[in-house]
Amino acid sequence: MPFAGRHVVLGVSGGIACYKSCILARRLTEACATVDVALTAAATEFVRPLTFEALTGRPVLTSLWERGRALAHIDLAKHPDLIILAPATANTLARCAMGMADDLLTALLLARADRPVLAAPAMNDAMYANPATTANITALTARGWHFVGPEIGALAEGPSERPGRMSEPDVIFAAAERLRDSRTDARAPRPGARDYEPLERSDGVRAGGGGARARRRRRPRQRADRAHATGGSRDDPRRDDGRDAARTRVPRP
Ligand SMILES: Cc1cc2nc3c(=O)[nH]c(=O)nc-3n(C[C@H](O)[C@H](O)[C@H](O)COP(=O)(O)O)c2cc1C
Description:
This protein is of the alpha/beta class and 253 residues long. The chain folds into two domains: 7-187, 3-Layer(aba) Sandwich (Rossmann fold), CATH 3.40.50; 211-246, no CATH class. The protein contains ten helices and eight strands. Helix 1 runs parallel beside helix 3 and helix 4 (72-78) packs parallel to helix 6.
């Protein structure tokens, strides 16, 4: 069983894709993971905590202020093998990028120091394309977060030809499996956003945001920035530190 003996926290923020997180919770539990679910207040508007409780067989966390669980957010930041944030709303990504900790889920994510976080953004395509969201994802990527999706496909409000739709539970599960054994050290120097380009791989995992069009748009500036930042050296150790299986960089031309 791929997650036997593993402890996973599933953070769920408030987007329409919350229903898919129920399936993800089920998949992880079936794979023998111990799954603790933390919901934002908005997420509880979409899916009741009871649903996750029934799926995981464990109490669900929704508030910093629950009696008898005062330090749950610190415990759940330190010990689990992996934290998955799915869906990752624009709002929660922004709060995490800012270092805010004003609810249980953001406090937990801020206290997460040296082990991986995998986020599956899900939002309206314009929200995802907004430079504010791109900047937030770029900042979190530089701090060691991993991202899977979003994908192009139908959104709640109708068809879309731009990324925004959350990856399917199986795709997130596969990304989680790849990160299961990895540890990232958020304190170690990480490549800045300009040092690599995000790349969609066939397995759906990528570092940073933006679709193919966004990458094409960014490329000329990144080249210039790179030359500036690295002095044009091809031996810059930041190019590939080999630590993150899921972090993908495009070979430099
Ligand atoms: C029906 C509905 C669907 C929503 N879907 C999304 C979504 O998919 N992604 C997103 O970022 N926000 C979505 N929102 C907005 C968030 O719920 C809102 O920004 C909320 O403050 C998020 O809080 P949280 O990040 O603390 O969970 C939706 C709101 C509504 C009413």
